[in-house]
Amino acid sequence: MDFRRMAIEIESPEEVGYQTIRYNLSESSVRDLPFRELNIDLSDVLLCYTEHRGSTLLRSLILENSKDFELDDVLVTTGAAMALFIVATTLLEKNDHIVVIRPNYATNLETPRAIGCEMSIVDLDFDRQFDLDVEQIRQAIRPNTKLISLTNPHNPTGKLFPLDVIKSIIALAETQGCYVLVDETYRDLNFQTPLLPYVASLSDRVISVGSLSKSFGAPGIRIGWLICKNQSLMYRFFAAKEQMILGNAVVDETIAAHLLAQKATFLPPIHAHIRENFAALKTWMSSQSLLEWVEPQAGVVCFPRLKTGLELDFPAFQKTLYSEYQTMVGYGHWFEQADRFFRIGFGYPGKEDLVAGLEYLAISLDRHSTVQRG
Predict the structure, then answer these.
(1) Which pick of 108, 135, 205, 261 has the fewest CB atoms within 10 Å?
(2) How confident is the model at residue 374 (pLDDT cuts 50, 70, 90)?
(3) How does the average pLDDT of the chain come out, rounded?
(4) Angle at Cα 363 formed by Cα 359 and Cα 366, nearest 5°?
(5) Any idea where the domains of the chain sit in the sequence?
(6) What is the DSSP letter of 372?
(7) CA distances from 118 to 87, 92, 143, 144, 206 (A)
(8) What is the mean pLDDT of the segment spanning 141-147?
(9) 169: confidence class by pLDDT, cuts 50, 70, 90
(10) Beta bridge partners of 315
């Protein structure tokens, strides 16, 4: 496999240095949770090997209120990143084909490329409200297609795809005999609508992926999972995990179980914070003369763009935003899009920092955007 570093990781806040960023609008998660707020005592935790699939307690909590699954339908992984890697490397070989909805989380593009398999990309269109086009996906499927990859709620647009559209994609996969990977890491951040069932509940051809990183502000414990009702496929995923790490860190799993057991305590204030920030973001966007957006429906990110007819001196803009104003957003090229697009994360900063960062973004855009000639 030919691994290459991804722009979204090379330019990430943790690589650039959190201490250099005051107004961080680039994060795709809620604020990181301090350990002291867990109110958890780890003094009796035995530093042993964990159950290789993930502890029974943790898997049962992941499936809480999900009646369509058995415990062995869940595999706990080291973050959603490992889950996505396991899925790609288990299902895809060089002579296989994958359909990827783009924009997408970079791993879902780069790992298939590292494998060397064929790839068809179906791009979401801003001018069509980032709606999924099932017919485009159907036309992209080939006889050797093994996987259709998407995120829902969508990263980086915040789009929540309708259930009937998801079911239509699943029907295509069932006809083709391939699988659908649905990265659902924002599932618990449906702050405007009721929590939806895992998409994997709809078919044994679907693999759902989730984690605690985005919704709970706990990326440091590196706990994610994949869910699938196809036990033959889950056996292969399980074998892949065992060859990589055997089991997860027992401390990480203990903290993860504590967070999920206290979901009713942790999530409501997170959702309240998101709603407050989202209202501030909507107010700011309504005043913009340079940017336009498709309003996000779930998650903590949106993907506005510079209005048609304007062009941006991106290097100068990026330098001004970061060097003068200590502000960062997610750039279009992180998602293989033009740098007239920006991912704005509105769940990570406090409200005051969000408002200040947005104003510095507006100032920087105003300084470095011009009307297109001709």
Answers:
(1) 135
(2) low
(3) 96
(4) 135
(5) 7-32+265-371, 39-263
(6) P
(7) 16, 10, 12, 9, 21
(8) 98
(9) very high
(10) none
The average pLDDT across 327-342 equals 96
Task: Give the C-alpha separation, 277 to 345, whole Å.
Answer: 10
Q: What share of the chain is helix, strand, coil (3-state, %, to 5)?
A: 45, 15, 40
Owner of token pair 């498709």: 294
Cβ(134)–Cβ(172) below 8 Å: yes
Give Dmax over CA atoms of the chain in angstroms.
Answer: 71
Which CATH number fits the domain 7-32+265-371, given the four candidates 3.90.1150.10, 3.40.50.300, 3.40.50.720, 3.40.50.2000?
3.90.1150.10
Band of the pLDDT at 313, cuts 50, 70, 90?
very high
Residues 328, 321 contacting (CB under 8 angstroms): yes
Task: Take residue 327 and report the two structure tokens written for it.
Answer: 């502000």
The 10s digit of each residue's pLDDT in 10-44 is: 999 999 999 999 999 999 999 999 999 999 999 99
